Amino acid sequence: MEKPIVTLGRGTARSAWNYCGQSLAAGFVDGYLSILDSSDHSSSSFTSSSKFKYAIHLYLVWFIKFPTLSYSKLCKSGLTLWRLKKILTMEKQAASKVCCVTGGSGYLGSWLVKKLLEKGYTVHATLRNLDDKSKVGFLESLPGADTNLVLFQAYIYNPHEFKHAIQGCEFVFHVATPKQTADTQSSQKIIEGAISGVRSIAESCLQSPAVKRLIYTASVLGASPLTKDGFNVEFSVKESSWTHVDASFASTHGLQHMRTYTVSKTLAEKEALRYNGEANANGGKLQVVSLACGLIGGETLLSHAPSSVAAMFSQLTGNLSTFMGLEYLEKLLGSIPMVHIDDVCEAHVFCMEKPSMAGRFICAAANPTIAQIAAHFRENYPQHQIPQQLMGEEKEGIAWDKSKLVKMGFVYKYDMENILNDSVKCGRRLGAVVSIDQ
Ligand SMILES: NC(=O)c1ccc[n+]([C@@H]2O[C@H](COP(=O)([O-])OP(=O)(O)OC[C@H]3O[C@@H](n4cnc5c(N)ncnc54)[C@H](OP(=O)(O)O)[C@@H]3O)[C@@H](O)[C@H]2O)c1
């Protein structure tokens, strides 16, 4: 049961509503500008608040005493009321579709937020920590962020926190995922956190009448062709392939954090798909799409090379621990399914813009073996010496059938060469790949 957190004085202009029909007010709570909501229209007690940073403008539709439609702009200095003068431009913005991106400051999340803003969508992005200036700052500097981006704080281990960001959104991209670092939580906690995060986000989607579709960013790690005892069973991996989470694949290979990540992504994806077709608050059915994405490479908006990009060029840098991630993929998946950051984000938008779409889709443009990647590097970057133990084994890779998404109409723009070359370019720009002139 939520407790009232603020009671407004009599006569306060607060009779706005959100997309769910709840009564809204705006003000400061705990030093944050906040939207307060209350499901009881006649009450002046507000039970819930969404914290966000300013530098973004939030537009609410207000019906004040007289029946003129007015807008309120919430900004750093507080509340401003406008009338018809500004309404036309604001109406245009208010009419843009609203979507939520969890994990908006990560590698994929930030690229997706940028793309959605460029396409004119209003984006509710979640971050773990709104006080992290570096993450907040670069998102707020994206073109269109000043008017169309709203940041929310939400932590996977407090999954109810996502509901504020989800309210009013038509589409929800669940991108965030907990990851294990050397000093963090147990495997069990990571796996349970990922699953309960999906569950809670899906429940919020069901309860928010505006939500039509949940798009879950899954991983090809959830679609291994290996049997429990480690033998290949399929010549071509497709959407019906699921990783056996109790298989011995990782213990034999020794990468415990990768095993945890694999299990968490597999089970979280299954959990997300379980909500497909569930009845939602507007009397319709929630559509759930899961995109099982390959290793992502290419450029980044972040100030460091993301781990997947570093894995792409690990043979050039000779970084053994990063290369072991690549080996793990080949062992589990039979080859290295890969996709360019721009394509993977386009695929997310594609899944949103389709009038109707649900189910599981593999999202990978190419699937070379480690040896084929090494051959590309040897031919195109001869100035780099690839250590012999990073050259990979000459063998036939397992094919990945990407036709399901393509049959829906999606077109990949980047092939293996583009993905690898853009990853190297990114690594050089960030100083992670030292340029050696020929
Ligand atoms: N990169 C790949 O090759 C690849 C391939 C297939 C699938 N994926 C999937 O794509 C998604 C994004 O991956 P990425 O490569 O962009 O990774 P990333 O840069 O590490 O981003 C992960 C995101 O998750 C958020 N996050 C982590 N722990 C969290 C927690 N406890 N509570 C709330 N948020 C949390 C992070 O938030 P903060 O920024 O606030 O810390 C960050 O935004 C993930 O679901 C991943 O499994 C990635």
Based on the model shown, name its key terms.
alpha/beta, Rossmann fold, seven-stranded parallel beta sheet, four-stranded antiparallel beta sheet, 15 helices, 20 strands, 35% helix, binds NADP nicotinamide-adenine-dinucleotide phosphate
Count of distinct structural domains? 2
Widest sheet: strand ordering: 12-11-10-13-14-16-19
Give the terminus-to-terminus CA distance: 67 Å
Uncertain regions spanning at least 5 consecutive residues: 8-15, 53-94
Strand content: 15-25%
Distinct helical segment count: 15
The CATH class of the largest domain turns out to be Alpha Beta
Mean residue pLDDT: 82
Coarse structural class: alpha/beta
The third-level CATH topology of the largest domain is Rossmann fold
Specify the overall morphology: globular
Computed over alpha carbons, the radius of gyration is: 23 Å
The quaternary state of the protein chains shown equals single chain
Pfam family, one: Epimerase
GO molecular function: oxidoreductase activity, acting on the CH-OH group of donors, NAD or NADP as acceptor
InterPro entries: Epimerase_deHydtase, NAD(P)-bd_dom_sf, NAD(P)_dehydrat-like
Domain NAD-dependent epimerase/dehydratase: 100-356
